[in-house]
């Protein structure tokens, strides 16, 4: 059984850094993982591990911009359209892997997740090939500094979940930047002073929105529409409590292990493995016991 993890989320959320961290963790746990670069604009310096499959071998944004005169966003759309027309390339590239984790590092253009059909089509294709697929969606901990920004992240996660329809994990990345130390001046931002405060963000408690700056001001005619919009968002999140975040601190190996165990769980990793028969065992299976 092959497993695909789509690493998604807005620009700069830490997707490529997480992919590197996950690759290292899989290797130290003696599990096999392969990096799949899905970003036609990726800079090779960003990869600690050479991608085993790379969309840039099929089509690169630079060539599309040079040769067809597209801008960066139109060029990206063109690259994905080109990929969908040439899926046999991907099938061939994916052919050589068995019982492996394939980690797809996706681009950061948010519209790819919320309303373009590319990623849903890719997901269906992987599923047809019998590859068990899940997605992780990263938003970075700095989003917690501004309640409006945070809830726009929650809504984008929600629409990506609805659009992609695969087992899903939302991750709050860069938790090493969040401190609950009261001596640290930065830690009081947006009222984040205790673990309990952080927990309200990880649970995406919509009531936080009601205490956001400006939300208690006198309701003038000018801002009444703004209040009504906030109220509607609170109601929407309360009615559909789909989004919760798993905190991730890449400086702590236990944290990556926790994220990986959640990924294993949502993908039911290893559930179809047959126990080895005594006849299948060889000396290598006992090497670690010596
Ligand atoms: N402190 C801290 N910084 C991080 C972490 N993860 C990523 N960064 C930094 O955030 C920036 C963006 O990281 P990337 O991994 O390139 O983010 P990305 O989501 O792949 O970005 P795009 O592919 O451009 O959308 C880089 O400067 C990283 O060094 C983290 O866990 N902690
Ligand atoms: Mg990246």
What is the rounded Rg? 21 Å
Named once each, the bound ligands are: guanosine-5'-triphosphate, magnesium ion
CATH class identity: Alpha Beta
The figure for the number of domains is: 1
Key descriptive features of the protein:
single chain; 290 residues; alpha/beta; Rossmann fold; 42% helix; 13% strand; globular; binds guanosine-5'-triphosphate; binds magnesium ion
Describe the 3D structure.
By secondary structure, the protein is an alpha/beta fold. It has a single domain, classed as P-loop containing nucleotide triphosphate hydrolases (Rossmann fold, 3-Layer(aba) Sandwich), CATH 3.40.50. Helices cover 42% and strands 13% of the residues. It has a seven-stranded parallel sheet with strand order 3-2-4-1-5-6-7, sandwiched between helices. The longest helix is centred in the last third of the chain and has 19 residues, at 221-239. The chain binds guanosine-5'-triphosphate and magnesium ion. Residues 15-16, 39, 46, 105 line the site of magnesium ion (MG). Residues 271-290 are annotated as: Disordered.
